[in-house]
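We modelled each protein-ligand pair independently. The example shown here corresponds to the zinc ion entry; the chain sequence is given first, followed by the ligand as SMILES.
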Amino acid sequence: MGKSTVINALIPEAQRATMTISLALDSGRHTTTHARLYHLDALSTIIDSPGMQEFGINHIDKTNLARGFLEFHPYLGGSCKFSNCRHLTEPGCALLLAAEKGEINTRRLTVYQKMMEEAERRKDWLVRSS
Ligand SMILES: [Zn+2]
């Protein structure tokens, strides 16, 4: 999953911006040409920069990925049935249950799950521009 895919999933307005840039360049692919800052909500900001891919996020290991989602915190650390729960399809998963009950945003959980699946597929996990 490319960086643009992640950002577009989190911020619908970003998609339009990305498409506009792609059309302007007539490249047919999503290209990040400028650093952009998006406000997700009062607490969260995303900075999309052409240089961001060099940092990657492979310093975040899979067990810590869920910690990157602030609203997941109350459900982490022993709430799930299995201590090594990946919060994908495991029975007794506190996050899945919370999403079912509407306590956390299912879209955010889906983004997390896509990132986790990607991390499991790839060893050197980097966020790349698509
Ligand atoms: Zn879980």
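Residues 62 and 106 are 20 Å apart (CA to CA).
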